[in-house]
TrEMBL record:
UniProt xrefs under InterPro entries: Uracil-DNA_glycosylase-like (IPR005122), Uracil-DNA_glycosylase-like_sf (IPR036895)
Native species: Pelotomaculum schinkii
Residue ranges occupied by any Uracil-DNA glycosylase-like domain in the UniProt entry: 74-150
Name of the protein described by the UniProt record: Uracil DNA glycosylase superfamily protein
Pfam families assigned to the protein according to its UniProt record, in alphabetical order: UDG (PF03167)
Length: 198
């Protein structure tokens, strides 16, 4: 299934929205990683150019976790799908709640496409907020407690039978600069891949 075509069929306002333009065998996906926001240039997103900016940090994170990948196709072949919570590029330093809400119907639909997901990794605070907005509609409470990611990393959090793993943002130069976060994200990816291969 082409994810972009599927999301474009939804009856919501789509101006400036960017969706993952990739064909995916939905039943092979066991984990979803939700990044914070799409880049200004769609070619720099996960399924854009082969040397896309978002892959410049993502592939090294998998490699640091001891997982031999060299492309987004390799990551998909592991059963891992990557997307963004906010489907519109940010224009300010922070991402407003309104911007998250605007993208929410698309993220919610996207997550629901995959029938056999065991793990959802939330990469950064925006991804956590977006997922909590979705979970609140179903359970009337946040799936992820409102405490720091550092305190949550080793918690076993479940939402509708799916393991929810809060982690840190995985794109942009900050992840390369902040070595401790780079190490922690790689550790989280290692745990996630181990879970989906059991």
């Amino acid at each position: 299934m082409n994810i972009k075509k599927e999301l474009e069929s939804l009856p919501f306002e789509k101006s400036n929205m960017q969706f993952c333009n990739v064909d995916v065998d939905l039943e092979k996906v066991r984990a979803i990683m939700v990044n914070e926001v799409v880049p200004a240039d769609p070619k720099q997103d996960f399924y854009g150019d082969d040397n896309a900016a978002y892959l410049e940090t993502t592939i090294p994170l998998f490699q640091k976790a001891g997982i031999h990948v060299n492309s987004i196709s390799d990551i998909l072949n592991l059963g891992v799908y990557i997307t963004n919570a906010v489907k519109v590029p940010k224009t300010e330093y922070t991402i407003s709640k309104a911007l998250i809400e605007e993208s929410l119907p698309f993220l919610e639909k996207e997550l629901s496409l995959f029938p056999d997901v065991k793990v959802i990794m939330l990469m950064g605070d925006v991804a956590k907020k977006a997922f909590n907005m979705i979970s609140k509609k179903v359970t009337r409470k946040n799936a992820v407690p409102g405490v720091s990611t550092y305190k949550l990393r080793n918690s076993e959090i479940y939402h509708e039978g799916i393991r929810i793993m809060p982690s840190y943002i995985m794109t942009g130069q900050n992840i390369l600069i902040e070595k401790s976060k780079f190490e922690m994200v790689a550790e989280d990816i290692f745990v996630m891949v181990k879970m989906i291969q059991q």
